[in-house]
Every structure is written in structure tokens, then in C-alpha cells.
Amino acid sequence: MKQLGVRAAHRTSHVEHQQTEGSHDPVDISAQARQRRRIAQLEEKLVVLESGHIVILFDSIEDLVTENDRRYDAEEDAETTINQDWLQVGYIMFTHTMWWFHKKATELEYKEYTQMLKMLHQGADAARGDDTSKLKVLISEWVNREFKPDHPVDPDDKHSCGFNNDACGRLLCPSELDWNNPAVKAGIRDCTDGYIVTDLSFPAFIYEKYMAESDDLEEGLFKGKILLQAYKAVFTSPSSAKDVEGNGDGADIIQNNRRAKKSFNALKVKKHIAQIIKMEKVTSRSIAYIICQVRFALSSVTSWRSVDGDFDYVQFWRTIVDFFERPPGREAQRRVDRLLEWWTRKVFGRSRRDDLSQAAKDNMSVNALARQRAARNDAAFDSP
After folding, report:
1. Nearest to 138 by CA among 304, 298, 313, 285
2. Is residue 304 a contact partner of residue 295, using CB atoms and an 8 Å limit?
3. What are the φ and ψ backbone dihedral angles of 307, each rounded to 5 degrees?
């Protein structure tokens, strides 16, 4: 069944729908009613602005809506391009996450609708800027602490980053090349043929231990320590980024925050981003977003741009998302699912108790003991 197109709904909304209401003198509207309405408007605006960390995980909202509307007007069996399919999948995921967007978009007048989009973009820009500023400082600290470069990374001087810095260069180096090889360093720095860095290469920092297995490039992919630290710093808290070595079976961050909210309901408890946007699982698009943020932080580029020399961030982001969302088969899909489960456990510390089968629970000693005691009691009762 087709979804209602947003533009179609807007067209409908301009049909005569206003009913004549009884006239009321403005003085009859109480100050309390006006205050309630103002509070409701501010709460709606806050919801929109707080959605910034969701919006930045998707393509342009206008492009997503345009593609959904095009499909609303198109024939059922009309052929589509890969890019159109990409946008439609994005629209479905976006409206699933931003559950209120479609309903509100179809109810608003066009002017109000465009104002809502403007606020969403403002929220996204603010979120991206905050993350960039935060990671610029944190990543420099992590790199200096872990690699102890002769020339430390200075967060206030981007020229101390990039391939000119040995530690940053190692992390940014294409995974198929060996940064320890002097010819590779010189080739990358001079942009010579065979060493030009593009979005067709995965940088070393996204791999576990910052090294790729040439015979199995999927091994350790998206498990880099600094990547995990950056993700936790953005979505849970900078302090949580200190703990990335464990297996994720420790404290449940989401549950702990729920308890904190109940325990200190009289006090203001600061929420982390994942709580604000109701994220309880790591998603492929959030991983792709953080990878792009980390690469920018490690680079020597002073201001954000979608294309950095020969490196296209937009295409790179799509490559990463495609790895997760367009696997070549069922076995590849299972590996993707396991990887996302690993990420969720690492970031949120989620217990796997709920994943236990009943058979596994039955074989555990507490339940086994209960059965044995019951059996002995029955045997004693039945004995003469």
C-alpha cells in the first residue's frame, strides 16, 4: 500500500476545510490558555530541534520526501533507479525513527511545513557542529595518549593533523597500504600515482588494531578503538568513551539512566544523546556518521566540506551504509547482524539475558536444582 505523499496532502490541505467558528473577543482568552499554548509550541520546537542527531543520519529531507511523493504519483510497476531506491529506503527508515514527521507534515500548511524543515536543518547543523567541536579535542587527546607522536596533535591547529602528522597519517592511511613503509608515506604526501587517497579505500582507523587482513578485509572491519570511543563520546557521553576495552557485558547504560531518572526525579538529570533521540541500538547510519566525523577530525582540513581533495565524504558515507543495508546474501546479512549486535553491546552494555533460550535457562543450576528438589520431594511423598 502506498504511503500518502506529503505534497499530495498539502494540496488537499488547501481545499476548503476551515469552518466558521463563533467569534470570541480576544479579551476572553485567558492568560493561562495563552501560556499553555505557548508552552505546547515550545515543546514542539524542542522536539524538532532535538531531532538533529536523527536528521544528520539521512540524506536531505527534501530529497527523501520528493522521492516518496514521486512514488505516490507513479504507477505501481514503474521502474526505479538505485538512487531512487536508496532515497525511498531512507524515507521509510526516517519516518520510522521520526514517527511524528509524516503525520505532522501532512497536517501542516505549506508555510508551517517549510518552517518545520528549517528547524530540522537548524537542529542537524547544530548537532553536527557540536560533535565536530567535541571530537576535535577528544580525538587529539586519544591519539596523543595512545601513539605519543613526536609532534603532538594540537586540537587548535589543524595543520598539525592529517598526513603530515605521523600518528594521524597512520590512522588515515588506506588499509591496503603500509604506513610504516617510507615510500608509502612519501607517495601519499606527494599525491603520486598509486598513492592518491580517495573514498574507495577504507582508512586504517576503522579496523580493529588499525590493521586490515588483506585476505579477509571484513575481519575486524568497523571495530577500531578510536571509532568506538568517538561513537560513545557522541551518543552516550565523553566519560563513557574511556571504557571500550571490555566485552560490553557490564553496566546497562539505558537501564541505569532510567533508574537515575526515577531515583532523582526531583533533580535535573542530564540526558545523553541516545536517550534524547530514543536510540537503544546502534544503527548502520550512525556508524557511518561517526566514521566521517573521525576522519575529518584526523585530517588537516580546517572547515567541513563534502569533498576533501580526492576524498568524497558523501560517497564514502553511502559506501558504509550500503555495506550494512545491501549485503550480497543471507550469510553476509548474518555477519552484519552480528556486527551490529557487537556494537550495541559495546556502546550500551546491554545484557544478553533476554536472548537466552528457554532450554538454556532450564539447564542452568538454579532451575536444575529446583527440579531436583521437587523430584526428591515427589519421591519421598510417593514412598511407602
Report:
1. 298
2. no
3. -125, 120
